[in-house]
Specification:
alpha+beta, seven-stranded mixed beta sheet, two-stranded antiparallel sheet, 32 helices, globular
Length: 755
């Protein structure tokens, strides 16, 4: 007998059991999937920075680097995004053949099954480079290596399934897709109506026990060309052929698309992106039970399997594409701003341009930092579920902002479509990333904090498991142990948050990190404030916090900022504390701190329990939200990072696809380098009040060679500034008859007059 347990804990236990919201099987499986990692440290309110800094950097092996510089570069040279969109509406046959032959679809499949056996970081680097050349090609390559049959087989398949299917997926004999989303259930996958009924039927001439499937899926990438469909459905056993339960839950099976009853639909066109995507149906499709991934033993475990696989996929594919998009926007926009003149000066000198350009630069720095840190965790076998949600949400959202800024600075150059427009298709593709693999609205409002508060909190999941224990006495004992640890932790967090907030974090522990040391202190301060406010919100709202989506979203924003800012600090440390890059780090920190301060203020202003909100405000934000964001000096220095050829510019935008052709990006790079090399020449001419280089040569201001160099640079700039135009009949078939738009309208007018 325990006095504390039976006298103090027991009434709290009884009360908590009464208010604990019911948790569905899918919610519990989602919580149990994946791992916690640095997010758990942030949730303690006192992160151990030495642990973060000791995380090994994600690196490539020689074989992976050779693939990136060999087959990946070859593939990029084969791609022409304008022709893929405008002429072919697909990848051309030689590209499909190449990606199969070089095993792009088998990057994550182990070598023992014929794959490349690459690390998550290598997978990320490949997707990143390809996406800066062609979104359609990047999506085509990323999907078989992300959530789908290959990854699920590797983690959950039987040995027989792995030996049968993985070699075929690795060498491209089978093209995979995964069917999860249905018209009735988009983000709410648990509401799917796709079914599989356990029954006996004939398969390949023999009567076997299996599943009769009926489904309708849509938005399925690679669906129109897939030969092997991974299918999520709800399994039922009405005749109790495999057990006592009738409803078995969400399950996952492999469906060869040539089976009777499988119908592949026509293609979708997502945001004018022409990667293969479309619907499919199954009508009374029968499969044996050994087509269920993991076999009969895995029936009903599909949701947990999917969430585990998704934890890796969401942390790699879309963050890689997004980080690439931001880096590409930084490199192209910096170059264009540098060479483009208005009112006689480079537009990069305008502060109105500097501000969005700095935002693009810092976003590129931060997203790639977070991508690398997340890949470092994945490389060690960790599958960080909450962090993957953070990455998918914020990488795609921040890419959207970066690309919008790039479009604004480019103006008409990026608006007019054609072969020379190197930004337009990326801009069109942004909504795809925002929407897929969990819509961002849902992820922000329900998942990041909703899942993180339970998984990453040091005690909450153990408390919930104790409260849900069917054995009340055992549950009470377990709850007693963890609850009082939670109380002690909360008291420590209260004191820590109070001290750090009132002292502005000056005395918070921080590693010896040079100029970045104050940033660590502030993050320690905000981590304590976040942990305390989260605990108080959970205490006062309980299960109702689940329905307070705006509050949950604000908490999620703070947790996300803490992770993303940690990643930026880690990058700066790993890269040797490069002084030239410090402005990008400063911008990230100032902007992130402003977001955290504002979200804390919003939480305190809207927390329903006003008494607790008042106490929290006194403890964690006694002087209000005081951070204003980056200074003008930081903005100027940050924008300058991409305005001249430099090691800093190359560090910010490494390994982008570059093909030395006459395309828009290659033209821009040439013009940028030529203009940068003629600065001194141009300055001498301006000082002499001369604009014509021939006059400058005649007057001895510059040499003939310098004049020709300047002329070449100006000619290169002219080619960049040019935009595409088309003959009317090339754009519309209605003009093809006459070949002359003026004649067409003249004839049309005559017809109208005659009628």
């Amino acid at each position: 007998m325990s006095f504390r347990r039976d006298t103090l804990t027991k009434p709290i236990f009884s009360w908590a059991r009464g208010v604990l919201p019911a948790m569905s099987d899918t919610e519990r499986e989602a919580l149990e999937a994946g791992d916690v990692w640095w997010d758990a440290d942030l949730f303690t309110g006192n992160p151990d920075w030495s642990k973060l800094l000791k995380v090994p950097q994600a690196t490539l092996t020689e074989e992976e680097r050779a693939f990136l510089n060999g087959p990946v570069d070859e593939l990029c040279a084969m791609l022409d995004e304008w022709k893929i969109f405008w002429e072919w509406r697909d990848l051309p046959p030689d590209v499909w053949h190449f990606v199969k032959r070089e095993k792009f679809f088998g990057m994550i499949i182990p070598k023992e099954f014929g794959g490349l056996g690459f690390s998550p970081y290598a997978h990320s680097e490949v997707v990143r480079k390809i996406s800066t050349r062609s979104i359609a090609a990047a999506v085509t390559v990323m999907v078989p290596n992300s959530l789908g049959p290959g990854e699920l087989l590797m983690h959950f398949g039987t040995k027989e399934q792995q030996q049968r299917w993985l070699p075929r997926l690795a060498d491209g004999r089978d093209i995979p897709c995964f069917g999860l989303t249905s018209p009735e259930a988009g983000s709410d996958a648990a509401s799917m109506v796709d079914t599989g009924i356990i029954c006996k039927d004939t398969f390949e001439g023999q009567e076997v026990l299996g599943l009769k499937l009926n489904w309708h899926k849509r938005y399925i990438t690679l669906g129109p060309v897939a030969t092997l469909l991974g299918l999520a459905f709800k399994a039922y056993d009405p005749d109790h052929l495999v057990g006592d339960q009738e409803e078995l839950g969400i399950s996952v099976a492999l469906i060869p698309t040539n089976l009777p009853g499988v119908e592949i639909g026509k293609r979708h066109l997502p945001s004018m992106q022409v990667f293969q995507n479309g619907p499919n149906w199954g009508r009374d499709v029968f499969i044996p039970l050994d087509y269920v991934i993991g076999g009969q033993a895995r029936l009903g475990q599909g949701w947990k399997m999917l969430m585990t696989a998704l934890a890796a996929g969401r942390g790699i594919s879309l963050p890689s594409l997004s980080a690439a998009g931001a880096a590409y926007a930084a490199r192209t926009t910096g170059a264009y701003a540098r060479i483009r003149e208005q009112f006689g000066i480079s537009i990069s000198k305008f502060e109105g341009v500097e501000e969005p350009l700095a935002r693009i630069v810092a976003t590129a720095y931060q997203l790639d930092a977070a991508r690398r840190l997340t890949c470092a965790a994945l490389n060690t076998g960790i599958h960080p579920a909450v962090i993957s949600g953070i990455m998918k949400l914020h990488a795609t959202e921040r890419m959207r902002t970066a690309v919008d800024d790039a479009m604004d600075i480019h103006g008409g150059k990026a608006v007019i479509d054609g072969p020379q427009n190197y930004l337009g298709n990326l801009h069109r593709a942004v909504p795809v990333g925002i929407t897929v693999e969990g819509a961002n609205i849902l992820t922000r409002n329900l998942i990041v904090f909703g899942q993180g508060a339970i998984r990453a909190h040091p005690y909450l999941l153990d408390e919930m498991n104790a409260l849900a224990d069917a054995d009340r006495e055992r549950g009470l004992t377990a709850f007693d142990k963890v609850f009082w640890k939670h109380v002690g932790h909360s008291f420590e967090t209260l004191l820590r948050a109070f001290g750090r907030s009132w002292s502005f974090g000056v005395f918070a522990l921080a590693p010896d990190a040079g100029d970045a040391r104050p940033f660590y202190r502030q993050l320690s301060r905000y981590s304590a404030a976040f942990a305390l406010c989260a605990d108080m919100a959970l205490l006062t709202l309980g299960g109702a916090l689940k329905r307070k989506e705006m509050l949950s979203a604000r908490f999620g924003d703070i947790l996300s900022e803490l992770y993303l800012l940690s990643a930026a600090l880690k990058r700066w440390q790993d890269e040797g504390r490069q002084k030239e890059d410090f402005a990008a780090l400063e911008w990230c920190m100032a902007t992130g701190f402003r977001t955290i301060e504002n979200r804390l203020a919003e939480i305190l202003a809207n927390l329903p329990n006003r008494f607790v909100a008042g106490i929290l405000k006194f403890v964690v934000q006694p002087f209000g939200a005081r951070v204003l964001g980056p200074s003008d000096r930081v903005v100027h220095q940050c924008a300058s990072l991409v305005l001249e050829p430099s090691a800093a510019r190359d560090r910010l935008t490494p390994d982008l696809a570059y093909v030395d052709d006459d395309g828009g990006f290659a033209r821009l790079e040439r013009a940028f380098n030529l203009i940068a090399g003629t600065d001194a020449i141009a300055r001498r001419m301006r000082a002499a009040h001369l604009s014509d280089w021939k006059d400058a040569v005649a007057k001895g201001v510059i040499t003939q060679a310098e004049g020709e160099q300047l002329a070449a640079a100006r000619e290169a700039v002219t080619k960049v500034i040019e935009v595409d135009d088309f003959a009317p009949e090339a754009l519309s078939p209605i003009y093809k008859k006459t070949g002359d738009v003026h004649q067409f309208f003249q004839e049309l007018g005559e017809q109208r007059a005659a009628s």
